[in-house]
Amino acid sequence: MAQDYYATLGVERTAAADEIKKAYRRLARQLHPDVNDAPDAADRFKEVTTAYEVLSDPAKRQLFDRGGDPMGGARGGAGFGQGFSFDDIMDAFFGQNGGGGRQQRSRVQRGQDALLRLDVDLAEAVFGVTHDIKVDTAVVCERCDGSGASEGSAPVTCTTCRGQGAVQHVQRSLLGDIRTSRPCPTCHGYGSVIPEPCPECDGEGRVRSRRSLTLDIPAGVDHGTRIQLAGEGEVGPGGGPPGDLYIEINVARHPVYSRKGDHLMCHVTIPMTAAALGTTLDLPTLRADLAGHEGSDTLSVDIEPGVQSGQVVTVRGEGVPRLRGVGQGDLQVTVVVETPSKLDGDQRELIHQLAALRGEQRPEARLGTTHRSVFGRMKDAFRAGVNDER
């Protein structure tokens, strides 16, 4: 009995090509011997493959609809070895063109992204600056305008693959002859060849060139920040659209200031007399590092009397502008109190007098910043014992 190809695929005789293809993909996934170990899976797989080969070919389908035998009497699975394409199996499992290489490649392709690292000073990163940079990338060949062909010539259809970009290879297997597509070795999958390549770019449609760009670095960038310049990367093969250029910022160390997030930090050393009495410091600003800056070169910072070594004095709004937000961070000044190591006679006498006035000739040792002295704790314990006796 002749095979009913429509019944094999489970579609109506009026089914469209897309419906037939979907039905075949569904059945192929279920019946392929690699995923189905049922005893009749291989035979049923051959049947649905033969049915698809007939119904996907308009001429064979028309002949079958008229009662003819499009497989020349080789129904019931023999058609699998009579021109079956392995790409159809790959389509069933991976979607259209899953087998790869069946569609010709385009000579015009998007270019790659490029990365350039740029060293900037801390002041430039904080306040922003404009830089002129040099970039070495591929650009469109002006001689052939990206076509890759010399003047007066043009790409021609490849005679090996006849413009398909792929050639067929047949391999015998237990399931029959399997036909696979591979990129054409002559045109490398393009479907055309350039008989007379442009002497400037050797058929690539692009050449390498150094060019200048003006880069606006926004205020608040940090070490490792990447700035994207759309369309300034490598031009693609065949004069294709360029990729993007990324500028990675490398912030150099500063002799005075460091950065933590949106805050600027520095350390200042003051004598113990200034720490005790308080003082006002004039710190150099980062703006002084910028050429042609406007405004004061110094910033006044008030140190309150009695400041301790290691204490942080915060100056609001004098930090780094927020790159993605409003406002800016703070300036955090860490105070280091310096104790004099050399005293003359008069200085030593004055300090002795100060110690006597403060009752600090024999000061009690303090353990850490939150612990009371040993003698203080002994006094507390003694007082507690006396109270208990009462």
Automatic annotation (TrEMBL):
GO cellular component: cytoplasm
Record CDD domains: DnaJ, DnaJ_C, DnaJ_zf
A single GO molecular function term of this UniProt record: unfolded protein binding
Annotated transmembrane regions: none
SUPFAM superfamilies: Chaperone J-domain, DnaJ/Hsp40 cysteine-rich domain, HSP40/DnaJ peptide-binding domain
CXXCXGXG motif repeat windows: 141-148, 158-165, 184-191, 198-205
Keyword Repeat in record: yes
One GO-annotated biological process of the protein: response to heat
Top-level taxonomic group: Bacteria
ZnF (CR-type) ranges: 128-210
Compartment list: Cytoplasm
Binding, Zn(2+) 2: C158, C161, C184, C187
InterPro entries reported for this sequence: DnaJ (IPR012724), DnaJ_C (IPR002939), DnaJ_domain (IPR001623), DnaJ_domain_CS (IPR018253), HSP40/DnaJ_pept-bd (IPR008971), HSP_DnaJ_Cys-rich_dom (IPR001305), HSP_DnaJ_Cys-rich_dom_sf (IPR036410), J_dom_sf (IPR036869)
J domain residues: 4-68
Cofactor: how and how many bound: Binds 2 Zn(2+) ions per monomer.
Keywords: Chaperone, Cytoplasm, DNA replication, Metal-binding, Repeat, Stress response, Zinc, Zinc-finger
Binding site for Zn(2+) 1: C141, C144, C198, C201
SMART domains: DnaJ (SM00271)
Role this protein plays: Participates actively in the response to hyperosmotic and heat shock by preventing the aggregation of stress-denatured proteins and by disaggregating proteins, also in an autonomous, DnaK-independent fashion. Unfolded proteins bind initially to DnaJ; upon interaction with the DnaJ-bound protein, DnaK hydrolyzes its bound ATP, resulting in the formation of a stable complex. GrpE releases ADP from DnaK; ATP binding to DnaK triggers the release of the substrate protein, thus completing the reaction cycle.
Family (UniProt): Belongs to the DnaJ family.
Protein name, as recorded: Chaperone protein DnaJ
Gene name as annotated: dnaJ
